[in-house]
Write a structure and sequence with these properties.
By secondary structure, this protein is α/β, with parallel strands linked by helices. The chain has one domain: Alpha-Beta Barrel (TIM Barrel), CATH 3.20.20. Helix content is about 35%, strand content about 10%. The strands form 3 sheets. The protein has an 8-stranded parallel β-barrel with strand order 1-2-3-4-5-7-9-10, surrounded by 4 helices. It has a two-stranded parallel sheet with strand order 6-8. Helix 7 crosses helix 10 and helix 11 packs parallel to helix 12. It comes from Metabacillus rhizosphaerae. Belongs to the glycosyl hydrolase 1 family.
Length: about 475
């Protein structure tokens, strides 16, 4: 019997270009949808502005300056023993407006250097092609509501698949694709509450992903392409059948994205919903065959929390703040930002997804956003983060060892402090590495190792055996 984590398990960490890189107009980069989102605070959403407005603070513009400090940062990842680094390419670094015919060579050169640095340390890049940033120049077409954007995305994919052939073999097509139903601006550059608009954009992304999967396999048979699901998982508030049905309805709203990308077709329950609501998909000849041919090789997802759903829940999928269920789980504690802490739910989620799709899984985001204190001697004692990660990794280990779920890797979010996507704050820190910046982008940008840095190093050294 196999015990513990596989020998080739991809331990690592994860970031996103718009939350880490900064340098938002350097070396020919164009504006993205992330670059016109101001900072918010807990409970107050980030504002989307019409272009860059003087006097407003946009955290993506400088972020944590990973663009200029990637060698220092990756060296720290290597010191922890990372086997993988999940990161994203900023599409607007490669095609500044999104629709150019010729790529920006400076952007391609930058990521060449990033991947070379990873490989120098034996770190496998896991690359997200579109992580909450669509080139702002594509809004003139209507962004992902317009089928033409598929062609621009595929031109971008073809460019990077060819450019980084042999350097990158793990790809994710869209980050948290189901965020289309909760925060469509982040998912697709669409600021609309109209369900027809959202589902049209989702269809175009499904089709783009399916074609990208096929293209990746043609360019390099070693390529493995996955989808990325924002890990929404729910428990029924009670055994009342009405509560149970409400919970199933919620999960259908989220999991249909996985159904399409992993199974290659729209599930019956979603087609019936479209029929009731008068939503018509913009299907053209051959599209449904493309979805079937472009199923993903693996399913990756983020796991931060679980929900409780009941018959009183009136789920609003149309607000920028996303999902509010109206129930609290009395058995779980919560983070400072109100996210439930549910390690056992990670094992549950792994089993649920593997039972449903029977393809390998990867946890590409999991972590605790918290306020960290730098002591007078420069140390940072984040025992709460170590406890959080230990408990989650212990449950993941059970899913592998006891339940037989094939898990390819685990990339903790985020290995260094980065801008929080939900609020744009810096004080909501996740990292093993402290970055000296405040909520207004002020600070030295210096990197400081936290206690969790040394703990995770031990975890990787022992391949998950040293969790105590």
């Amino acid at each position: 019997m196999t015990k513990g984590f596989p020998e080739d398990f991809l331990w690592g960490g994860a970031t996103a270009a718009n939350q880490a890189e900064g340098a938002y107009l350097s070396d020919g980069k164009g504006l993205s949808t992330a670059d016109v989102m101001t900072a918010g605070v807990h409970g107050v959403p980030r504002e989307i502005t019409d272009g860059v407005v003087d006097g407003k603070y946009y955290p993506s513009h400088n972020a944590v300056d990973h663009y200029h400090r990637f060698k220092e940062d990756i060296a720290l990842f290597a010191e922890m023993g990372f086997k993988s680094y999940r990161m994203s390419i900023a599409w607007s670094r490669i095609f500044p407006n999104g629709d150019e015919k010729v790529p920006n060579e400076a952007g391609l050169k930058h990521y060449d250097e990033v991947f070379d640095t990873c490989l120098q340390y034996g770190i496998e890049p896991i690359v997200t092609l579109s992580h909450f940033e669509t080139p702002l120049g594509l809004l003139k077409y209507g962004s992902w509501e317009n089928r033409e954007v598929i062609n621009y995305y595929l031109r971008y994919c073809e460019t990077v698949f060819n450019k980084y052939k042999g350097k990158v073999k793990y790809w994710l097509t869209f980050n948290e694709i189901n965020v289309m139903s909760t925060k469509p601006w982040m998912a697709a550059g669409i600021d609309s509450n109209d369900e027809q608009t959202r589902m049209t954009a989702a269809f175009h992304q499904f089709l783009a992903s399916a074609k990208a999967v096929q293209m990746a396999h043609e360019i390099d048979p070693n390529n493995k392409v996955g989808m990325m699901y924002a890990g929404h998982f729910a428990y029924s508030n009670s055994c009342d059948p009405e509560d149970v049905q409400k919970t199933a309805d919620f999960m259908h709203k989220m999991l249909f994205y996985c159904d399409v990308q992993c199974r290659g077709y729209y599930p019956a329950y979603k087609l019936k919903e479209f029929e009731r609501e008068g939503i018509v998909l913009p299907i053209q000849d051959g599209d449904l065959e493309e979805l079937k041919k472009g199923k993903v090789d693996f399913l990756s997802y983020s796991y931060y929390l679980t929900h409780v759903i009941g018959k009183e829940t009136n789920i609003d999928f149309k607000g920028l703040n996303g999902v509010k269920t109206g129930y609290k789980n009395p058995y779980l504690s919560a983070s400072d930002w109100g996210w439930t802490i549910d390690p056992k739910g990670l094992r549950y989620s792994l089993n649920l997804l593997y039972d449903r799709y029977q393809i390998p899984l990867m946890i590409v985001e999991n972590g605790l956003g918290a306020v960290d204190k730098v002591e007078e001697d420069g140390s940072i004692h984040d025992s709460y983060r170590i406890d959080y990660l230990r408990d989650h990794l212990t449950e993941m280990k059970k899913a592998i060892e006891i339940d037989g779920v094939p898990v390819l890797g685990y990339t903790m979010w985020g290995p260094m402090d980065i801008i929080a996507a939900s609020t744009g704050e810096m004080k909501k820190r996740y990292g093993f590495i402290y970055v000296d910046i405040d909520d207004h982008g002020k600070g030295t940008f210096n990197r400081i190792k936290k206690d969790s840095f040394y703990w995770y190093k031990k975890v990787i050294e022992t391949n998950g055996e040293g969790l105590d």
